[in-house]
Amino acid sequence: MKSIRDDHEVARDLATEAGQLLMRLRARHGFAEPDVLRTLGDRTSHEFLFSALGRLRPSDAVLSEEGADDPARLRSRRVWIIDPLDGTREFAEPGRTDWAVHVALWENGELAAGAVALPAQGSTLSTVDPPWLPEERPAGQRLRITVSRTRPPAFVQRMATRLGAELVPMGSAGAKICSVLLGMADIYVHAGGQYEWDSAAPVAVARAAGLHASRIDGTELCYNEADPLLPDILVCRPELSGMLLASIRDGADLDSAGPHAGG
C-alpha cells in the first residue's frame, strides 16, 4: 500500500481497496450461492479494513458492523466507523451496482473524514474532494426521494404523495446518499432503524459537499454512542430541509418498524 498522508486519504484509499477486493471476490466466486457470497464479502472486507487500520492508525479504535464492539472506543478520542459491505443483498445479485464500502473517522465528537466506495460503479466519493453540488435544482423538476427497494417505509410513501415526489428505489444506504450527492435524487429519508455504520461515512461526505444531514426531527446525528442504533435520518439539498422537516413533522405517524441494517 502506498504511503498515505492524512485521514481523508486513509478513508478514501481503504474504501477503494476494500471495494476492489470485493469486486475480485464477486468475479471469482460467482452468484450461484448468494448466501455464501454475502458471508465471504462481509468477512473479507472487514478483515482487510480492520487489519489496515491497525497498521496505519494503531492508536485509534474501530467500530465495525462485522466486528465485536469494544467498549474502549467510548474512551477514545478517535474512532473509525466502518461498514465493510453496505448492501449485502445487492452485492450478491448479478448486475447490481447499488452497494458500497463505508469508512469514516469520528474525532472529538464530530465526523472528521469519510469515504464511500461504489465499487461496481467504479467510483469513490470522499472528503478528500467532495462532489460539487449544482447551485440550484432545474426549475420545475419533480422532487425525487430515494427509498429502499425492498422495504420502503409507508410514511415516506405518504410524504411523497403530499409533495408530489417520485420514489427512486435503491439498495444500500450509502448508495442512496450518494445518489443525492450525484444529483440522481434530491432527498434520502429513512425511519425504519439503522446503525451508525450505515450512515457515518456517507454523512461525512454529504456534509463536506454542503448537503443537509440530520435526524428527521431536525436534531443532530450523533456518532460513537454507547448504543450504535441510529433510527432515522434525513439527507437533502440544504434549501429543501426546512420544508421537508415541516412535512415530516406535520405528517408524522411514522412507521413502527424495528431496527435493521441498511435502508
Strand content: 15-25%
Label the structural class: alpha/beta
How many helical elements? 7
| CATH architectural designation of the largest domain | 2-Layer Sandwich
Overall shape: it is: globular
CATH class of the largest domain: Alpha Beta
What is the fold named in CATH at topology level of the largest domain? Answer: Fructose-1,6-Bisphosphatase, Chain A, domain 1
The biggest beta sheet reads: 5 strands, mixed
Radius of gyration: 18 Å
Number of structural domains: 2
- What is the mean predicted local confidence, pLDDT? 91
Concise overview:
The strands form two sheets. The chain has a five-stranded mixed sheet, sandwiched between helices. The protein is built from seven helices and ten strands.
Description:
By secondary structure, the chain is α/β, with parallel strands linked by helices. It folds into 2 domains: 120 residues, 2-Layer Sandwich (Fructose-1,6-Bisphosphatase, Chain A, domain 1), CATH 3.30.540.10; 108 residues, D-Maltodextrin-Binding Protein, domain 2 (3-Layer(aba) Sandwich), CATH 3.40.190.80. Helices cover 36% and strands 21% of the residues. It has 7 helices and 10 strands. It is globular and about 50 Å long.
Topology of helices and strands:
Layout: H1 7-29, H2 34-56, E1 61-64, E2 78-86, H3 88-91, E3 100-107, E4 110-118, E5 123-126, E6 144-148, H4 154-163, E7 166-170, H5 173-181, E8 187-190, H6 196-209, E9 212-214, E10 233-236, H7 241-251
Parallel strand pairs: 1-2, 6-7, 6-8
Antiparallel strand pairs: 2-3, 3-4, 4-5, 8-10, 9-10
Helix pairs in contact: 1-2, 5-6
